[in-house]
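Consider the following input, taken from an annotated entry for HTH araC/xylS-type domain-containing protein (Solimonas fluminis).
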Amino acid sequence: MSAVPASGGKRLRRSCAQLPERVLAVLAAGKGTCPGQREVAERLCMSPRTLKRQLRRQGLRFRDLRERVLRQRAEQLLGGTRLPVDQVALQVGYSSGANFSRAFNRWQGQAPGRFRQRLGAVGESPIPVGTAP
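Applying the prediction step yields:
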């Protein structure tokens, strides 16, 4: 027999189901670079190991969620500003433009400059603010 009341078990399952959204919210709330797994776990009042385990149960990885937020930030900066790619890289949290360009190419299949060109006029946001890709 379980010591957890039926309603408590439902609450636990519901909170686990909402975990990816909570992680994304913490990641997106950072003004500078995205926080790491340890900091996100602390903000969610759990250990990094528990965070990892609960995400894995849902077929997710922290790294993938973090990259989603980084990609969204990069797309918004490239599409909505005239910042040079090196400055976008720094604002997204990369130490160099080269590292950022490799990551962006992996995400989009094209270089950041090419993405900006294909987007057309600077000032158009590629992703509506507040939506996840």
